[in-house]
Amino acid sequence: MKGKKIDDDKIMGFFDEGTEFNGTLKFVGSFRIDGYYKGKIESESVLIIGNKGKVEAELLVNHVVINGEFIGNIKAAEKVEINSQGRVTGTIISPKLIVEEGAFLEAHCQTSGQLAHPGSPAQE
User: Are 13 and 31 within 8 A, CB to CB?
Assistant: First the structure.
């Protein structure tokens, strides 16, 4: 996709409620999960976990927005947002962490300087 700019605000992929997937997911552009996902997710874009979404994974993303349930490890190059309906258990490493009132958070959190983008040598 050289030469073409991807709009991170536009949903490029979607797992709907009732969908189950195990494995490694790599995507360009925003991706939304409202079903169940287990595995590893890598992207330089935005991952959205919808209200009905449940994700058990190792995340290496630019930005993640959590409205549903997440269990695992998150490394975000830009930020992690946990909205009021969101539930997170695990580890979070990100320069920015936003947690809305009412969210559930049981995690080891580290906010530090800018992380390298997923897949770069500093992330390996």
Answer: yes
Domain that residue 75 falls in: 12-18+30-110
Going by pLDDT thresholds of 50, 70 and 90, the confidence category of residue 1 is very low
Instruction: Tell me the residue type at 51.
Output: N
User: What pTM does this model have?
Assistant: 0.83
- Counting the structural domains of the chain, the total is 1
Whether the CB-CB separation of 61 and 78 falls below 8 Å is answered with no
The model's pLDDT over 38-76, given as tens digits with 9 standing for 90+, comes to 999 999 999 999 999 999 999 999 999 999 999 999 999
Distance from CA of residue 82 to its chain's centroid?
Answer: 10
For residue 118, is it within any domain?
no
Closest CA to 41 of 79, 88, 76, 90: 76
88 domain residue, yes or no: yes
Whether residue 46 is contained in a domain is answered as yes
CA distances (Å), origin 86, targets 39, 64, 82, 89, 120: 19, 12, 5, 10, 29
